[in-house]
Model the fold of this input.
Amino acid sequence: MTDSPWLVIGLGNPGPKYAGNRHNVGQMVLDLLAERTGSRFAKHPRAQAVVAEARLGTLPGGAPGPRVVLAKPTTYMNTSGGPVSALAQYYGIDADHVLAVHDEVDIPFDTLKLKASGGEGGHNGLRDISKALGAREYVRVRVGVGRPPGRMDTADYVLRDFSATERKDLPMLVDDAADAVEMVVTDGLLAAQGKYHQRG
Done:
């Protein structure tokens, strides 16, 4: 389906308590994409998510870019699969046109990596999406949040807000991740990897 929209998912936990957490960086990226496209999130009638429909980027010649459905599940991170599967079904979107933006502890802070398919690297949100979609062939924009210091538990670490030092660079990181999403949608994954995929 060449005219199939992209389903772009920002992973995180719902509510203001979690809004500034490292685990919610995917939703920060989605908020920026909605702002860029002048679209607003609204509750979806068939899925536990808020969505905003838009066109992302610009095609050669200045035409508006591809159609996208920006979505933030309103469930907790570990049960993101249900909303993603429901939205994919509702809009008739195959797994290869699903893109998940999420935090990644195995990548240093301020670094992006992009991939399609493969394992979930212990990320429960991704694991639930793979299970619900019955496929792993979706694109992931992995936003590096770094590993926890010392012996801090990973779960505790990702459920904390970014540090004061990190917050200085966070807007640039979110901006780059939003650019990477846009490039995947307009130019394809390989082009986006060539520009944003920093090999560490």
User: Anything to note?
Assistant: The mean pLDDT is 95. The CA atoms of residues 184 and 190 lie 8 Å apart. The beta strands are 6-10, 42-43, 49-55, 67-73, 98-104, 112-116, 139-144.
